[in-house]
Specification:
With about 425 residues, the chain is α+β, with helices and mostly antiparallel strands. About 30% of the residues lie in helices and about 25% in strands. The relative contact order is 0.19. InterPro entries: ArgE/DapE_CS (IPR001261), Bact_exopeptidase_dim_dom (IPR036264), Peptidase_M20 (IPR002933), Peptidase_M20_dimer (IPR011650), Peptidase_M20A (IPR050072).
């Protein structure tokens, strides 16, 4: 398997170039579909039955779902990646440019590099004869960077695949710290919140009086300051992304623009703020929501305040099962003569699609390429990382897929 990965390295780089040069910003629906078609061709060549699942009802292009039926009674693997990038069709960052063992380009690492690693590993398994008996399902989403709505439909196929699987492997980027490859066994959730505050308006000379109170702007600031002092706990971050106050204040339906009208001598009647918070478990999510709701409910006299929440990505907690999978990967590293991969601090990794299946199946994240500058025009992929990541994945998948399903496994039930 290792020899196959090395022999086909330039083939992998050439495929990455073709994928990157096809724009697939999330909202470029035809572009996402074209990348899906490119991946479909590759997977069918490996013996997968591939379906393109269009999702017009969510406002997104769709997903690639590929199934390889192997030996009965053996572990079922779910491989996860995504077709889309953050760089839309009007972005000036459009082309793959190679610089020796590095290359720049939109999505070169996130996540087209990851999909190339996945294919390189599967080709290595095919060459070694281990793919033939492997039970593998692949879900390549077309909207990981900006999920379609309703999310229950957008992620239904991925969640269903997770319930069928015994192991989930996510081919997003490899984390590297101080030159050392890291293993990822956890990802934090994303939860959006919106704070709306109202107060009595009038001439600014009357502010803080019993008749007019603090005004909406000051009360919003007090609540946000209370978040900062009362919420902190391990593995939690929270952010205010938009803030506006005035006689009128509003955030647009897209959630990316705030508007306000007022004057320096008028007490603001309205204030609005929005942001997110990220947690490592559903229990932590509920605890933080309860704290925030209580802080907002204790608003100052003469004002009113409400907070609403919208769930985004769930958390992938660092379970014992995930830790055991990292130990298995480190067994592969030892056999390849590679250094052990410590577990990455989940504060250093954003949310991702594997979180949707984390409640149902043990998983690992970060089997894709190493890169830097992701989500910026400075995105650069370490092409050499294709080699070691594909070798790791091919051997790990070969070993896992040869094992019998446990009667006590979550998927077996």
């Amino acid at each position: 398997m290792a020899a196959t990965v090395d022999a086909e390295y330039e083939r992998s780089v050439a495929l990455l170039e073709r994928l990157v040069n096809q724009n697939s910003g999330t909202m470029n629906l035809p572009g996402v579909a074209k990348v899906g078609a490119m991946m479909t061709e590759q997977l069918r060549g490996l013996g997968f039955t591939v379906t393109w699942k269009p999702l017009p009802q969510t406002g997104r292009a769709g997903h690639v779902i590929a199934v390889h039926a192997g030996k009965g009674g053996t572990k079922r693997l779910l491989l996860i990646g995504h077709l889309d990038t953050v760089f839309e069709a009007d972005s000036p960052f459009q082309r793959f440019v190679r610089h020796g063992e590095e290359a720049s380009g939109p999505g070169a690492g996130d996540d087209k590099g990851g999909m190339v690693v996945m294919l390189a590993a599967l080709r290595a398994m095919q060459a070694a004869g281990t793919l033939k008996t492997a039970n593998i399902e692949i879900v390549l989403t077309g909207d990981e960077e900006d999920s379609g709505d309703p999310v229950a439909i957008a992620r239904a196929d991925l969640i269903a695949a997770g319930k069928r699987a015994d192991v989930a492997l996510d081919f997003e980027g490899l984390a590297v710290e101080d030159g050392r490859d890291m293993g990822s066994i956890a990802r934090r959730s994303v939860n959006d919140w919106t704070l709306a505050v109202t107060g009595k308006s009038g001439h600014s000379s009357r502010i803080f009086s019993e008749a007019f109170g603090d005004g909406a702007a000051n009360e919003a600031a007090r609540i946000l300051a209370a978040f900062r002092t009362q919420l902190p706990e391990p593995n939690l971050t929270f952010n205010t992304g938009l803030l506006a106050a005035g006689v009128t204040a509003a955030i647009d339906t897209g959630g990316s623009k705030a508007t306000a009208q007022g004057k320096s001598n008028i007490i603001p009647a309205q204030a609005i703020a929005s942001g997110d918070f990220r947690t490592l478990s559903e229990e932590q999510t509920q605890r933080v929501r309860t704290k925030m709701t209580a802080i907002v409910a204790d608003h100052a006299p003469g004002t009113d305040a409400t907070i609403t929440f919208k769930s985004g990505y769930p958390a992938m907690a660092p379970t014992a099962g995930n830790q055991a999978l990292l130990a298995r990967l480190n067994g592969v590293n030892r056999d390849l003569g590679l250094a052990e991969m410590p577990a990455l601090d989940p504060l250093k990794r954003g949310a991702g699609d594997i979180s949707w299946v984390a409640a149902d199946v043990d998983g690992l994240v970060g089997l894709g390429t190493a890169s830097r500058g992701d989500h910026t025009p400075d995105e650069v992929v370490d092409l050499a990382s294709i080699r070691r990541q594909a070798k790791r994945a091919a051997i790990l998948m070969s070993r896992l897929s040869a094992e019998r399903r446990s009667a006590g496994s979550r998927a077996a039930h």
